[in-house]
Amino acid sequence: MNYRVGIDIGGTFTDFALLKGPDVILHKNLSTPEDRSLGVMRGLEKLAQIEGVPLGDFLGRCDAIVHGTTVADNTLIEMNGALTGLITTEGFRDEVEYRRGFKESVWDLRLEPPIEITPRRRRLTVPERILFDGSVYKELDEDAVRECCRRLKKQKVESVAISFLFSFVNAKHEKRVKEIVAKEMPGVHISVSHEVLPRAPEYDRTSTTIVNAYVGPKVTSYLERLVSRLKEAGYKNQLMVMQASGGVMTKEYIDGAPIRVLASGPAGGVVGSAYVGMKKGYPNLLCVDMGGTSYDVSVVMNGNAPAETGWNMHHRYLVGVPMVQVETLGAGGGSICHVNNGALEVGPASAGAEPGPICYGRGGKKPTVTDALLMLGILSAESEFAGGSFSLRRDGVEQAFQDIGYKMGYSAEDAAFDCWRVVNANMTQAVRRTTAGKGIDPKEMVILAYGGNGPAFAAIQAEDLGVDNVLVPKASPTFSALGTLVAKPSIDEERSYICPANEPDIKKLKALWKELDDRAANYFADANFPRDKIIARYQMKMRYRGQNWALTFDMQTNTGAQDLSFVNDAIGQKAIELFNKRHMEEYGHVREGEIPEIIGVRLATYVDTPAPSVIKGLSARTVAAKVAKTRRANLGQGYKETDVFLGSNLKPGHEVVGPAIIEETFTTIVVYPGWKAQVDDAGDYELTRIRSYH
Fold first, then answer.
1. Nearest-CA neighbor of 664 among 681, 636, 640, 644?
2. For the domain bounded by 80-214, which CATH number is listed?
3. Pairing between strand 84-89 and 123-126?
4. Most buried by CB count within 10 Å: which residue of 121, 244, 579, 669?
5. Maximum CA pair distance of the chain?
6. pLDDT of 50-92, one tens digit each?
């Protein structure tokens, strides 16, 4: 039997999901920050051991290895990317600094601007100008380009971003500058805006290209190391990489714009949530993922996790590529608890995998959320941790919280509970911000909790939000890795074209969609997916004149051979009707009698691949589960002797009434007072609020 392996690298753990026919095998091991590909190979070796075969034989039987990575995110968080320079149109040197006047916290007078990826001394301009219609107003000054290269070389620039005005209409000058830079600065990484984000406006395009240049060398070098190690170990197929858009594609495609992997890890979890939610009968979900370093929250409506291409601010930089919308908070098991000006704070700094929380026994000195859970009895030093890979230790934990308690005027146990309370409040507020921004009432949603720590907090968050149901999949500890196996190989790209919707250039529209279609088909062919398997969604981007934001909607969906017959004289009127319908759905009104404008075309292509099966329902007779042991724990109502259940003993139909703790192989599920948990036919947990509880 052949295998499919999903991998997700987090700040603390690297997660694996092995799909073997209908069965899914989970594994976690600590990430290796010094070279994350080492952690991947160690995990694959462990999976091979579980299967009882040598690593080479195991990899030889892998039809696909699908990989989500946080390399780009970590590069932006730690600000350790390539030394980056910018070459742009004369007169536009400082545009990237204006940021459209955007400030993340408008009322914070002390908020500093983000660190400059390209300081002014590394932002250089050249005489050239292409107009909005693609005509050349001023020819490129090639000697000025060579002078820019000499100045950037003196500053030891490692990566160059190139972004010219209206290059998305006519890329002639950008292509020539790329050739000159490659010759004058051999070995430098080059990012060109018409390849990274070929659309207006220029700030979005320039910002995205700069970020791509900054993170690109680290992403590509990491993927090259991993591919090399996989081939040496016996893997014969192409490595598939998770994208921020929620799809996967080959490393060769990612090499063209490494920015596409930014936030790819969280995207895998959202895609998996949408898939499982629909199969379980829960199309509307609040997806919450608490790992070792961060907490991610996203919304799935009607089973969809749409990828947006607009104002995507990630780590304070605008990134215009399609991205599944996820709000990230520095709140994970490794988040450090500390006192700041007399107030207890948790995060955003994290102990990560090295040295990790104090209780890992790897040299950590600062108390974390995981240490607090150990103090509260939610975790135990007597139980296996992370699948039995190591055990937690209490040495030094109590003293660390005593130090916090001394500053705050209470005991070590109270300090640990305060850490639990603060991090929970931070996460709940993140959910409220996300739902309020979308006009969604959390009470109408179901929470799907995953990540190693998500199930430990999900029910108490649901209590605060007024949510009655929480779904915890059996695979929740490695859910983002499982999500990569659900994600479809896909390419999602767009091109700019601005005109009144009632006067489109039919030939131009057809040419743009054909360009995107041919490009996608070529990459799919390289990945061994034939044309007849490709599903293509031809989309239009439109807005009313004067609007800042555009709406995207489908014009046509085809399977198999390219078919652009829908691009005809009637397309303008059809587009107006579909746009008005979409505008009414999104904003509740339309501008009667006003002609909207087309601002671009988009093509989302994908192919179907095998995905893990999901079983729905609870047909087994409900019976009370047998308590495995008890321990002193505080689940929000003070320390009490609390029932502990082992997930390995629980079968479909078993019910656990809170307060209780369920210890799974790679996670801990807390059933808070006033809640109960039932095991469904798939072995997944459904937590429900007990209405009669007082």
1. 644
2. 3.40.50
3. parallel
4. 244
5. 81
6. 999 999 999 999 999 999 887 888 788 778 899 999 999 999 9
